[in-house]
Amino acid sequence: MKKTWARWFLLAGLLTGGFASCGARGAAFNVVVLGCEGGLAEGNLSCYLLTRPGSGSYVALDAGTVLGGLRQAVARGSLNDCKPTRESNQSHEGWVLREGIKAYLVSHAHIDHVSGLVIDSTDDKPKPLLALNPTIDDLRDHLFNWKTWPNFGSEGDRPLHQYRYQRLAEGESQAIESTDFQVQAFTLSHSNHYPSSAFLIRSGSQYLLYCGDTGPDEVEKSDGLQRVWAASAPLIREGRLRGIMLESSYPDGRQPGQLFGHLTPEWLMKELHLLAVAVDPQQPQRALAGLKVAVTHIKPSLEKGKSPRQLVEEQLRQRNDLEVEFLFPEQGQRLEF
Ligand SMILES: [Zn+2]
Ligand SMILES: [Zn+2]
Fold first, then answer.
1. How many domains does the chain have?
2. 114-173, pLDDT tens digit by residue?
């Protein structure tokens, strides 16, 4: 009898990751990429499904391309932890949309980050939508307003209460309902002080940082990224930040006036250097070695020749004097952090 209990305890511990500190570190987060490019790519716009390995419950980080990305992810076997029950009449992607995604975290209301959410709202289930105040105000006033689209939100004119708006307080940790995640939101500046957000997400003792669209602080005359780096630095020192998702919308070669609230490889590396100094002012050069940085929101181009994605990848690899581990997400892929 005793032996059986001990076995159960060990099994439960392994399943919940309680023994993860023994031996090699397993992944603390999985991210299924539903969309990863910037504007122009109608079928591949920012949307990442975050989960804990083995949980099958997801939080959507932005919601540009949703259903199209779900189809790709299902085809690639990236959503095998979230399949419809035998009794369900839902397709696999329909099941993930309705049952698998427990909540939406929206970084800002630009349509390349919310178009899927709006279009698919007719067939989704009621669930929370978490964002900072200005983003919820914009969704309420400009999208879910019975003009651009029926009001599937929970505020404003005759709301249908499909998406329950939860207003995040800057920097304060808040639980995400029906998941094991907690989130802290920070304001980022995305051209002319238009507010975007970064989300620092916690699962147990581990963290992942997702940044929405942002320009460099120096160009934006902002301290948005600096605040995010200040919150992240102690977690990196303690080995608890599993990765960063950060944009590089364009390849190098743009004047600051032509960034439109975005980063390039040069600016992304400048920002990572500021983070490295915050982590270890004595030895910044080694402070981020091995840290996973997923590069998001690369805008495709209509021109012939090398794609912006190829250029951004080459330029970041060349500039990578901090030895971070760059990841270049692809639609439908399941990433480990
Ligand atoms: Zn934007
Ligand atoms: Zn965008």
1. 1
2. 999 999 999 999 999 999 999 999 999 999 999 999 999 999 999 999 999 999 999 999
The gap from C-alpha 84 to its chain's centroid, in whole angstroms, comes to 25
Q: Which ligand is nearest to the CA of 115?
A: 2
Identify whether the C-beta of residue 222 lies closer than 8 Å to the C-beta of residue 186. no
- Does residue 166 lie in a domain region? yes
Asked whether residue 309 is domain-assigned, the answer is yes
**Ligand 2 center–CA 131 separation, angstroms:** 16
Task: Determine phi and psi for 266, rounding to 5 degrees.
Answer: -60, -45
Q: How far is it, in rounded angstroms, from Cα 147 to Cα 149?
A: 5
- Whether the CB-CB separation of 105 and 122 falls below 8 Å is answered with no
Residue 178 lies in a domain: yes
CA distances from 163 to 85, 128, 139, 290 (A): 24, 5, 11, 38
Distance 130 CA to ligand 1 centre (A): 17
Residues 197-226 pLDDT 10s: 999 999 999 999 999 999 999 999 999 999
Report DSSP letters for 275-292, one per residue: HHHHH-SS-HHHHTTT-E
- The angle subtended at Cα 334 by Cα 12 and Cα 90, nearest 5°, is 80
What is the reported pTM? 0.92
**Helix-then-strand count for the chain, H and E:** 10, 14
**Is beta strand 241-247 parallel, antiparallel or unpaired with respect to 206-211?**
parallel
**Hey, is 251 helix, strand or coil?**
coil
- Measured CA to CA, the distance from residue 248 to residue 214 in angstroms comes to 9
CATH of the domain at 244: 3.60.15.10
| C-alpha 103 to ligand 1 mean position (Å) | 20
Beta strands 163-168 and 127-132, pairing class: parallel
Q: Which two tokens stand for residue 256?
A: 């600051």
Q: Residue 84: inside a domain, yes or no?
A: yes
Tokens of 56: 């099958």
Q: In this structure, which residues have their CB less than 5 angstroms from ion ligand 1?
A: 110, 213
Contact indicator for 261, 211 with CB cutoff of 8 Å: no
Residue 229 CA, ligand 1 centroid: distance in Å: 20
Domain that residue 217 falls in: 27-336
Kind of pairing between the strands at 101-105 and 292-296: unpaired
